[in-house]
Design brief:
alpha+beta, Conserved Hypothetical Protein Mth637, Chain: A, 3 helices, about 25% helix
């Protein structure tokens, strides 16, 4: 976490992007990495804009609070988020992550009953 000169909190978030996905979706958040899928192609910054808007909506923040710091031409991107502490970021993303993605449970095998 970094503090800016005017005492506004700022935190960085690493995002792993899958462009040209079948649906826009914010996936798992674990180990400081957020997985995001967007339908837009990576040409002309379309996927970057889609990711920015999707992450801002998930964090319940204006998109102007997020700044792309690194990864404009990469699938791994780093965003600086103004006005949010690291603890608050973690809480918002953990609350938004589906329970099935938070805990990986082994799949049960179904055994047919004869009868």
């Amino acid at each position: 976490m970094r503090a800016k000169s005017n005492d506004v909190e700022q935190v960085e978030l690493t995002v792993q992007v899958t462009p040209r996905a079948s649906a826009n979706q914010v996936g798992r958040y674990e180990d400081g990495l957020l997985r995001v899928r967007v339908t837009r192609p990576p040409a002309d910054g379309e996927a970057n804009r889609a990711v920015l808007n999707l992450v801002a909506r998930r964090l319940r923040m204006p998109s102007s609070a997020l700044t792309l710091v690194a990864g404009a031409r990469s699938r791994t991107k780093r965003y600086a988020i103004e006005g949010l502490s690291a603890a608050e970021l973690h809480l918002r993303l953990a609350a938004a992550t589906p329970a099935s993605a938070q805990q990986k449970r082994p799949r049960r095998r179904r055994i047919p009953l004869d009868g």
